[in-house]
Design brief:
Chain B: Belongs to the ABC transporter superfamily. The complex is a heterodimer of chains A (about 220) and B (about 260). By secondary structure, chain A is mainly alpha-helical. Chain A has ten helices and no strands. Classes of the chains: A mainly alpha (about 220), B alpha/beta (about 260).
Chain lengths: ~220, ~260
C-alpha cells in the first residue's frame, strides 16, 4: 500500500522534471532570474548603499533570491495543476487508485526537484560574481531550500484552492507573490516595518505554515 | 451472478442548480455485458459516468461497482475501472509511451523507472503488443503533439486497458474519428470484451454503435425513460420495424411531450 503510494509520488514528481527539461524557456528563465536580481539589483545596492554602511548586500540578496527562486518555482509548479485541469489531464490523475494526498505530495516533490534546478542556477551565478560562500554554508542551503520549497508548495495549494483558470492565475499570481517577496525580506532587511505590515507578515506566515503542517499526516493517513 | 454495476435511486444536483442533473435513476449491468447509456446532450449521461468512476460525488442514492461502494471504497473501485473520457486526457508534454508508463506506474502495475529501457520486460512487451494491435507501433515514442485525433483515442484505449479493468467506461469514445478509425477501435474493444470478459459501459451519440449492446438505457432530463435489450427498446412503438435511431428519437419525443 505505502510502496504503491510512494511509487505514485515518484511518478508524478518525475513527470514535472521531464516537463521542465523539455521547456527550454523555463530552464533559461531559471538562469536569467538570478542574473537580474543578484547581478544587477544586488551589485548596484552593494555599490551605492552597502559599501558605505559596511554591509554586504550581494550576499544578503543572494540568499534571499536563492530561497525566493525555490519558493516561487515550487508554488508555480503546484498551481500548474490548474493547467492539468484545463487540459483534462487531471482526470487521469483523479481516477487513478491512489490517495489524493499522494497527488499533492508528488506535485510538491516534483516541483521541489524543478525548483532545485532554478536554485542551482542561482548558486552557479553566485559563484561567478564572487558571493563568498563556504562549504558549510552551501550545505546549510540544502535544508533551508527544502523548507522554502515546502512552503512554496503549501502557498501554491492555497492559491490553487481559490482559482479555477490559468488566466486568473496569470492575473492574480503577481499580486499574491510580491507581498511574499517584500515581506520575507528578499531584497530588504526586515526592520522598520509599519505595524500593519508586521501583522500582515505574521498572518501570511501562519497561514502558509498551517497548510504546510497538515502535509505530514498524509504519510500516516494516505487515504 | 450479482451485477457488476448496481445503481439505485441515484440523484445528482449540482450546486446552485434547482433541478437534478440525474434524477432518481436505477439500473444494473451484468459482468461482461456491453451496456449503452443513451440520451440527448445534457441528459445526465456524463454525470452518471462521472459518479460511477468516482470523480463526482452523488447527492443521494446508492451505487456499487464490483460489489464496492463507489464513495466509501473509491480506491477499490478505481483499481477496477478504465475510463476513456469525452476529451482526451493525455499529457501533451510527454511521448505516447511516457503517457502509458505514467499510467502503469500510477496504478502500481510496475515500479516507476525514468526511462523506457529500465522498465521491466513484461511492461515493454505489453506496450508493444497493445501498440501493434492498435496500429501505432511506429509512433509509440513520438510526442503526443504530433498525434492525430484518432491516434490519441487509440493511445487512450491502450492506456485504459493496461491494468486489465473489469469495467471500461467509454464516454463518447469515437467522437471526431473517421469511419475507418471508428471501426478499428470497435473491433479492438469487442475483441477485448470477448477475451477478457470486460464489461463495457458506453455513452454515445452514434446510435449504430449501440445496436450490438446487450442492454440499453435511455436517459432524458436526468430521468431513465427506457431500459432493455435493443429489441425490447424497439417494440411497443407505433413505428413498424424501427431502427434503434428511430426508436430512440420516438422515445425522446414522447417523453418531451
Amino acid at each position: 500500500m505505502i510502496t504503491k503510494e510512494i511509487n505514485a509520488i515518484f511518478t508524478i514528481a518525475f513527470r514535472d522534471l521531464i516537463k521542465l527539461l523539455r521547456d527550454r524557456a523555463r530552464v533559461l528563465s531559471g538562469f536569467v532570474f538570478p542574473f537580474l536580481f543578484i547581478g544587477i539589483l544586488g551589485s548596484s545596492l552593494n555599490a551605492t548603499i552597502g559599501e558605505n554602511l559596511g554591509f554586504n548586500f550581494l550576499t544578503f540578496i543572494f540568499t534571499g533570491v536563492f530561497a525566493q527562486a525555490l519558493f516561487q518555482s515550487s508554488a508555480a509548479g503546484v498551481i500548474s495543476l490548474v493547467q492539468d485541469r484545463e487540459n483534462d489531464f487531471s482526470q487521469e490523475l483523479f481516477i487513478s487508485p491512489i490517495s489524493r494526498y499522494s497527488i499533492i505530495l508528488g506535485k510538491i516533490f516534483g516541483e521541489t526537484l524543478v525548483a532545485y534546478v532554478a536554485g542551482f542556477g542561482v548558486l552557479i551565478f553566485g559563484f561567478i560574481i564572487g558571493v563568498p560562500l563556504t562549504l558549510t554554508q552551501i550545505a546549510f542551503l540544502i535544508p533551508a531550500g527544502l523548507a522554502a520549497c515546502f512552503l512554496g508548495g503549501a502557498f501554491g495549494i492555497l492559491v490553487l484552492s481559490n482559482i479555477s483558470s490559468q488566466r486568473t492565475v496569470a492575473q492574480i499570481f503577481p499580486f499574491v507573490l510580491f507581498p511574499q517577496i517584500f515581506l520575507s525580506g528578499v531584497f530588504n532587511p526586515l526592520i522598520g516595518f509599519l505595524l500593519f505590515f508586521r501583522g500582515l507578515r505574521r498572518s501570511l506566515t501562519r497561514l502558509i505554515w498551517s497548510v504546510a503542517l497538515t502535509m505530514p499526516r498524509v504519510l500516516f493517513f494516505p487515504r | 451472478m450479482p451485477p457488476i454495476i448496481e445503481v439505485k435511486n441515484l440523484v445528482k444536483r449540482y450546486r446552485k442548480s434547482k433541478i437534478n442533473a440525474v434524477d432518481d435513476i436505477s439500473f444494473s449491468v451484468g459482468e461482461g455485458e456491453f451496456f449503452a447509456l443513451l440520451g440527448p446532450n445534457g441528459a445526465g449521461k456524463t454525470t452518471t459516468i462521472s459518479i460511477l468512476n468516482t470523480t463526482l460525488i452523488k447527492t443521494s442514492g446508492q451505487a456499487r461497482l464490483c460489489g464496492f461502494d463507489i464513495e466509501k471504497q473509491a480506491g477499490e473501485v478505481r483499481q477496477r475501472i478504465g475510463v476513456i473520457f469525452q476529451n482526451p486526457s493525455l499529457d501533451r508534454n510527454l511521448t505516447a509511451e511516457e503517457n502509458v508508463r505514467f499510467h502503469a506506474s500510477l496504478y502500481g502495475l510496475y515500479p516507476f523507472r525514468p526511462i523506457f529501457s529500465l522498465m521491466s520486460n513484461s511492461y515493454k512487451e505489453k506496450v508493444f503488443e497493445l501498440a501493434e494491435l492498435m496500429g501505432i507501433r511506429q509512433e509509440i515514442f513520438q510526442p503526443i503533439i504530433t498525434f492525430s485525433g484518432g491516434m490519441k483515442r487509440k493511445l487512450e484505449i491502450i492506456r485504459g486497458l493496461m491494468h486489465n479493468p473489469r469495467v471500461l467506461f467509454l464516454d463518447e469514445p469515437t467522437t471526431g474519428l473517421d469511419p475507418a478509425s471508428r471501426r478499428n477501435v470497435w473491433e479492438y474493444l469487442q475483441n477485448v470484451r470477448r477475451k477478457e470478459s470486460t464489461t463495457i459501459f458506453l455513452t454515445t451519440h452514434y446510435l449504430e454503435e449501440a445496436e450490438s449492446a446487450d442492454h440499453i438505457a435511455i436517459i432524458n432530463k436526468g430521468k431513465l425513460i427506457s431500459y432493455g435489450t435493443p429489441e425490447e427498446i424497439k417494440k411497443d412503438l407505433k413505428i413498424q420495424t424501427p431502427t434503434l435511431e428511430e426508436a430512440y428519437l420516438e422515445i425522446i419525443k414522447n417523453h418531451d411531450n
